[in-house]
Amino acid sequence: MDALALILLLLEAGLALLLLYFDGLLKKPAHVLVCAGLVALAFAVRALFFGYETLDYQDFLSRWVQHFRDNGGFAALSGSVGNYNVPYLYFLALFSYLGTDDLYLIKLLSTLFDVLLAFGAMRLAGLFTRSRVRLLFVYFAVLFWPTVVLNSAVWGQCDSIYVSLALLALYWGMSGKPALGMAAMACSFAFKLQAVFIMPVFVLLLIAKRVKLWHFLIFPAVYMLLMLPAILAGRPVLDTITLYFDQMGSVGSALNYNSPSIFAFARDVSDEALAAKLGTAAAFTLMFAVFAWFWWRRSSITNWALLGGALILVVGIPFLLPHMHDRYFYAADILSLAFAVAAPAYFFLPLLCEFASLLGYHAYLKMRYLLLMHWGAAALAFVLIVALVFTAAQLHPVRRQKYS
């Protein structure tokens, strides 16, 4: 690792510690020392894997950076580069100007958002507990969570970007800052299409009167603002704002791609097109059923109910949809972890989500199955059932449980 990459890594580690300090969680020198040690360890673990190259990096990310390097950096935004949305491509264009190995820069970018991801999870859990121990636990649990480390430091993927922004969107939406929440949700969606698994939570916030209809106008405004640099660089407006429609056509036609979705149970499906339509219909049915359920119980909606509803959606939608990939339950991994810190009796939920996701990660990174993916699908089915039961109790004033 060269000097610039090392400096950036140290700055990110410093940011991770500063966020805890400014959040008032480092009251004593002993707290600072312990947390500094944990931050150092979390970043040292990541640094160990920064030189590892996956096929995704070799076949796609490195070639995209090289395309920017060969075609004028930001000027190359005028054309079509890769299949990621343009906000992520801004970073790749920036990297093309720097002399540091772009593999390190890509992983440093994701690591930076690992920090924001931990902060977002901590803030969200903080709506339900003010225990310093529990808040510090969720912060460091995220930083050390296997799929988080594997996603950014090993795989070089950017799922921490859209999920960190989505967690902050949920936090702001639930804490009385709907405009900020909607703006963050738009940023999340601008980075990754998979934000659609979390976006429906804002309909629940609307039903709960935490969000007003006019706040939804913020979403397209922020999204267009993020597209503007590419448009100004000469990229066609329509191509820029409709990129996700093209992306949806490139996810593949197989029912499942190493994902612990319901289609992991499928064997020798005779009509895959029909099965895909049924899965899509089931996902939309679940989503609208949750909307109707919350509308029916709208006078009983609490933050606990919203947290349960969010977990149902973020697990249930990708669980039922066809064509899901190995990393599509990343948001469920982190939201379930924040959920368990808020309600420790449900500590097993993030363990089950992580088990399911790690099966997919293992399949890609090791090119072989540790266990067949239907074991992960069974684990997620159980998580979904528990989330439904929990939310039902929260929406029913008589059965509502109290957590501290």
UniProtKB/TrEMBL annotation:
Coiled coil: none annotated. Keywords: Membrane, Transmembrane, Transmembrane helix. Signal peptide: none annotated. The keyword Manganese does not apply. The chain crosses the membrane at residues 32-52, 73-98, 104-124, 136-155, 189-207, 213-233, 274-295, 301-321, 328-349, 369-393. This is Conjugal transfer protein TraL. It comes from Candidatus Faecalibacterium intestinigallinarum.
